[in-house]
Design goal:
CATH architecture of the largest domain: 2-Layer Sandwich
Number of domains: 3
Strand content: 15-25%
Oligomer: single chain
CATH topology of the largest domain: Alpha-Beta Plaits
Number of strands: 12
CATH class of the largest domain: Alpha Beta
Helix content: 40-55%
Strand order of the largest sheet: 2-3-1-11-12
Length: 321
């Protein structure tokens, strides 16, 4: 005979399980579980089995367990989870890659009909085409101002119609029409709302960032720090190369316009005094290049002229024979 567990014992067991998971895992996905059924949740648990654990429960119980465990262990980082436990949420403890776990969770979404009073998570558009309904059902379309026509004894929608907008509540007429058309416009599953990792909490959109995105953002940040440092004349590691380059240009400008000099400025000053010295070195190279370019043309011209001379000699000798 099975021993019945009291509510107090269940709370104690739940508290122990949650505290154990907090000690074992440093990565947690906080997921919304609105409109997720038990069968769907079971499939998600099975799909994540091996490296992740899904824990659902009442918010008050989870908050209480987290606070008490943080006080006992001294790990105050756990307290950052408390503000996130709002609404119908659950926790996924994992040791795997957060991006892969998030993608795996998103696979288990199922279609759902539009129920009356439900807030639409997306826009619902009824596509044009034959509905398969008989003409007696046209009243549904007339109430919703959907243009139709009778084609071969059935109702046909002429143009696509935005039936429900995101954020609006589903009315009885909209729900009845979508049900008759066999359209399940919504899909539900666990939705990652926040990510906890080693005491830090961040938006799940961070998981979609690639290495190129990170490098681009890092480069933009370095550029901003450099610009600010140069504007304030405050030395930083990012601005140091630019400061040295600007300082060298300033010293070089002073050396050029005054008698002061230093080894790196000697060549510049020498060039400014007599640019022809540097042009002489270039002239032979240019002449050699011009010679090499004209030589083949001259040789070709000589080859063409030689046959003409031979033909003239042959003509003269033949004339006096």
């Amino acid at each position: 005979m099975a021993v019945k567990t009291s509510r107090t014992e269940k709370k104690v067991m739940y508290d122990q399980k949650l505290c154990k998971l907090l000690d074992m895992y440093s990565q947690i996905l906080i997921v919304g579980a609105d409109n997720v059924g038990s069968n769907q949740l079971q499939k998600i648990r099975h799909g994540l089995r091996g490296e992740s654990v899904v824990l659902m429960g009442k918010n008050t119980m989870m908050k209480r367990s987290v606070k008490i465990h943080a006080e006992k262990t001294g790990h105050t980082a756990y307290l950052s989870l408390v503000p996130l436990l709002v609404g119908n949420v659950g926790l996924i403890f994992t040791k795997g890659e957060l991006k892969e776990v998030s993608d795996e969770v998103s696979k288990y979404k199922v279609g759902a009909p539009a129920r009356v009073g439900l807030v639409a998570p997306i826009d619902v558009v009824v596509p044009p085409g034959n509905t398969g309904l008989d003409p007696s059902q046209t009243s549904f379309f007339q109430v919703l101002n959907i243009p139709t026509k009778i084609n071969k004894g059935t109702v046909e929608i002429i143009t696509p119609v935005e039936l429900i907008k995101k954020g609006d509540k589903v009315g009885s007429s909209e729900a009845a029409l979508l049900s008759k058309l066999g359209i399940k416009p919504f899909s539900y599953g666990l939705v990652v709302q926040s990510v906890y990792e080693n005491g830090s909490v961040f938006n799940p959109e961070v998981l979609d960032l690639t290495e190129d995105d990170i490098m681009e953002k890092f480069a933009a940040g370095v550029s901003m720090v450099t610009s600010l440092s140069l504007a304030l004349a405050y030395p930083t590691l990012a601005a140091a190369p630019h400061m040295f380059a600007n300082a060298y240009k300033s010293v070089l400008a002073i050396a050029v316009t005054t008698e002061y000099s230093f080894p790196q400025a000697e060549k510049v000053k020498e060039y400014l005094k007599d640019p022809s010295k540097f042009a002489v070195a270039v002239a032979p190279v240019a002449a050699a290049a011009a010679t090499s370019a004209t030589a083949p043309a001259a040789a070709a011209k000589e080859e063409k002229e030689e046959p003409d001379e031979e033909s003239d000699d042959d003509f003269v000798s033949g004339l006096f024979d």
